[in-house]
Amino acid sequence: MEIQGIINRYLTAGLKKELSGLNLEGLNEIRIRADKPVILKYPDSEKILKTVFKPEELEEALAKMSEYSPYAFREEIKKGFITLKGGFRVGICGRAVIEGGKIKTIKDYTSLNIRIPLNVRGCGERLTDVYKDGFKNTVIISPPGCGKTTLLRDTIRLLSEKGLTVGVCDERGELNCFNDLGIRADVLEGFSKPDGIEILIRGLSPDVIAVDELGGEDDKEAVIKASYAGVGIISTLHGEDFNINGFKDLFKCIVILENKKGQGKIKKIYA
After folding, report:
1. CB 3.0 to 4.6 Å from 271: which of 6, 14, 106, 253, for a disulfide?
2. How distant is the alpha carbon of residue 31 from its chain centre?
3. In whole numbers, what is the pLDDT of the chain averaged over residues?
4. What is the secondary structure of 174-189 as a DSSP string?
5. Are 186 and 168 in contact (CB under 8 A)?
6. 50 neighbors 19 (Cβ within 8 angstroms)
């Protein structure tokens, strides 16, 4: 699904009409806040629209996005986002419902942030040049929204086209959303990183495993296990520099992106 499909399927008639006359090329985010104007975010600018969502319109938009079945999306919603077809991640703000000391879900929604995935062919070429003497375990680091997934997606494609078998653990359906990961990529979608990595190692014989957004201890143990099995690792991580606790000995290539919204522009490579 492309951005126009998202607009037509989930958003209000008033917003559809206002967007119909605008240039959406390069759009990064559509930010919707209850009782406030919708804001479009571009890499170097933003546009404040006239359209204002009422709280009930915001609730209805999220209901449509979750196919009127919040229980099917409850694990994602309680983490503060859902992922739509095509790799569109929708961030969610609202009031936490606590049960047994843990977040059960979110309700009384106040904000939605629709993040637009980008397929920028060629943005990974500078990184793959580092692999001329063989692949090196790689981590791509930046704050949110600076293009980590975009760069990882194109690097997977380039590695695949250069002859490596790449096992992709696409936990949220954001890596393979353009079906453009190359002819040697095997994709597991919807699996947690620990489960997906284990399946890839056991059954798909990858040269490299690619995962997006390393998180807690389970993720850390899974990628270390893959490395011990002789499989290369390429991943992304939120941050601003290469002081990455627990991973320094694992990654031999550390990629720092520019700290601005964009398409995965590389600031520095430590290899």
Report:
1. 253
2. 17
3. 89
4. -SSTTS-S-TTEEEEE
5. yes
6. no
**Per-residue confidence band for 74, with pLDDT thresholds at 50, 70 and 90:** confident
Helix, strand or coil, per DSSP, at residue 268: strand
Task: Read off φ and ψ for residue 91, nearest 5 degrees.
Answer: -75, 145
Task: Quick: pLDDT tens for 12-43.
Answer: 999 999 999 898 988 999 999 999 999 999 88
Neighbouring C-beta atoms of residue 21, cutoff 10 Å: 6
CA atoms within 13 A on the CB side of 125: 4
In eight-state DSSP terms, residue 44 is: T
Helical H segments across 122-181, by residue range: 125-128, 148-161
Label residue 217 exposed, middle or buried (CB < 10 Å: 0-12, 13-18, 19+): exposed
Which residues have C-beta within 8 Å of that of residue 38, sequence separation ≥ 6? Answer: 15, 30, 31, 32, 48, 49, 51, 52, 53
CB 219 within 8 Å of CB 171: no
Half-sphere exposure of 172 (CA within 13 A, CB side): 21
Under a CB-based contact definition with an 8 Å cutoff, are residues 34 and 55 in contact?
yes
Q: What's residue 215's pLDDT?
A: 80
pTM: 0.86
Which amino acid belongs to residue 32? I
